[in-house]
Amino acid sequence: SNFVYAFNVERIGLVASRKTASFSPLYMGWGGEVTWNEVEILSKEEAGKDLYTFSISIPEELAKDFNVPGQFVQIKVGENKPGFYAIASAPNAERREFEFLIKATENNQWLTTSKPTNIVEMSGVAGKGYDYNTHFEGDSENVNQAYDGFACMNIIFCAQGTGIAPIRSAIEHSIAVGLPQPATLYYGVQNAATRAYGDKFESWTNDYNVNVIEVHSKPEQNWSGPTGYVQESLKRNGVKVPRNAGAIICGNKDFFFDNKQLLLDAGLFEGRILTNF
């Protein structure tokens, strides 16, 4: 559905597909009434061209409900249509704030022009997230049944634009720590100006066992790294031990299907190519 892909890349404030009258309960597209929590913006910083990082206070129950990277919430202000935003920080039941990476669009100015101390409304945590415990972990019964006993020893992350937000959550949840070789993150952006989290790459490599390959589609003159699209770099580099590899992808519809097909062609099990929808 368009909902899935729009949210997944999220370069938006994606909005719920159903219009609601004033003061009526909002329903998710898949049913179920949403409970709204008044929460405070703790900080807001520029992260790149039209990109902002937000830290927002949360009640204790939301912290406890966020337990899988890739899950998301809805955020709204007043009667504006809510946007769906993946949580960018790692799950931590003790931490009373969520972090987000949000691209400013004409549909979410009510949020991107907000300032610290402003109050917004946040839904509960939703989505299945990246179910790596079932599909990647070597001691999982599912690994023996579904993956012929091939333990996951290599992880490929593919992120496009603000799709880096839920992948940051996965990386900083330490899912690649302990692998026998570094995981690889392919991160597709137009150029350095539109990149987020550049200040975290060194930590991702040193502390979380993830090598970062930035791919610039509209590179500036001084860029010496890969150019074009993530799909091209992934195809060129290939995948080591594909039967022992897993992948997490977050980007728009074409990005997702192109990279998924490349990974399937390389020999990955389809069930090990994870999405958060």
Distance between the termini: 10 Å
Helix content: 10-25%
Radius of gyration: 18 Å
Q: Quick one: biggest sheet? A: 7 strands, antiparallel
Number of strands: 12
Structural class: alpha/beta
CA-based shape: globular
| Strand order of the biggest β-sheet | 1-5-4-7-2-3-6
Number of helices: 9
Mean pLDDT: 88
Explain what you see.
The chain is α/β, with parallel strands linked by helices and 277 residues long. It contains nine helices and twelve strands. Strand 4 and strand 5 form a beta hairpin. The protein is globular, with a radius of gyration of 18 Å.
Question: Helices, strands, pairings?
Answer:
Elements: H1 2-9, E1 14-15, E2 37-48, E3 51-57, H2 60-65, E4 72-76, E5 83-86, E6 97-103, H3 109-112, E7 119-122, H4 132-135, H5 141-146, E8 154-160, H6 164-172, E9 183-189, H7 201-208, E10 210-216, H8 230-237, E11 245-250, H9 253-266, E12 273-274
Helix pairs in contact: 8-9
Which labels suit this protein?
9 helices; 7-stranded antiparallel beta sheet; 277 residues; alpha/beta; 5-stranded parallel beta sheet
Short description:
It contains nine helices and twelve strands.
